[in-house]
């Protein structure tokens, strides 16, 4: 479990990740996936062992958008549960209840002032995947000057 939290916090610390940094941190080779999207470049990796079963990284195409990248990590046989996340980072908030996907519920929570989303198995409360949206900092960079506590979200939702 501590490996999961350590990895998540290292990923957040990247602020704007690079392919090289992600490959080093995750121990994978990210391969660009061909796609017709002119705004985003897609990269994937499928580690054969370890905590992470699949890596999906998306970054903007040069000059195409003002969005920062985002990263999806699908977990393998995760022994991380929603209560573990809440114990470490505080209350997780429901972000997605979908009748189309009743097997999971989407949550978001704050990790060091950044929005992280998670898909959680609705029967076992196991975390299936985590999504780091590098454009969704919950605390503005000048929060201390504005008197906003570092762990208080600016908005009640990521997005």
Can you offer a commentary on this structure?
- This protein is α+β, with helices and mostly antiparallel strands.
- It is 20% helix and 35% strand.
- It has an 8-stranded antiparallel β-sheet.
- The relative contact order is 0.15.
- The C terminus is likely disordered.
Keywords:
159 residues, alpha+beta, eight-stranded antiparallel β-sheet, 4 helices, 20% helix, 35% strand, globular, disordered C terminus
Please describe the topology of this protein.
Elements: H1 2-13, H2 19-26, E1 31-33, E2 40-45, E3 52-60, E4 70-75, H3 82-89, E5 93-96, E6 104-111, E7 114-121, E8 127-137, H4 143-146
Antiparallel strand pairs: 1-2, 2-3, 3-4, 4-8, 5-6, 6-7, 7-8
